[in-house]
């Protein structure tokens, strides 16, 4: 029995390892990226390329989109040679949008797809580059349950857990909520290390205390080597995290810690936008 033909738009830090896992699972894969050159690693592994999003949708049964923000999503769907300009037959098509975007944009794009007879599923993921490489992401899905059920065997190749949370917009809200908690952990860890250093405690010792005690979690353990090495190459950049916090604020933040977190990351953008989100520590150190 032949496997579903897949397409993928957006070959960033997350897109490439996720595509590799789909290829490993035996799916025929065609990719498109606005910036050419990034696809070579995947074509060497057996992927094909498409000239545009429209041509990609014409040739594939299921198309994934993973781009940076709402504007990029709208361009992929509605721009010149965008997905919604594709001339498609009555053949069933599913578009799975794994981008982290506003619930409002999700609902708009979903309606546009449905009007054209294309099934749509939102499926943002929780996790960064290493979980993407290891296929241990948590996939958060929103949309009709029938579409989710059709897509789930493919989504299972990308993560250790695939959850259906409700209708359009629900998965986006859940993604923004979990990213708030990630941010509380990062800024809390930064402030803990900074306070300790200011009072004569070595960062390595303080991080050992954190990671061997009840406060340890995946974020503290993943970010400890970043802090100790001083290598802030982005697994998830300040720029992208600050964007997610703006989405959360626009969706409706009402709590004090979330507002403080939002404001701190927006302030850190000017100097640290291309560094890992844990560079919030560098920003706070500079302020002292």
UniProtKB/TrEMBL annotation:
Residues 6-166 form the 6-phosphogluconate dehydrogenase NADP-binding domain. The active site is at 175. Residues 169-284 form the 3-hydroxyisobutyrate dehydrogenase-like NAD-binding domain. Pfam families: NAD_binding_11, NAD_binding_2. It comes from the Bacteria. Coiled coil: none annotated. Keywords: NAD, Oxidoreductase. The keyword NAD applies. This is NAD(P)-dependent oxidoreductase. It comes from Ilyomonas limi.
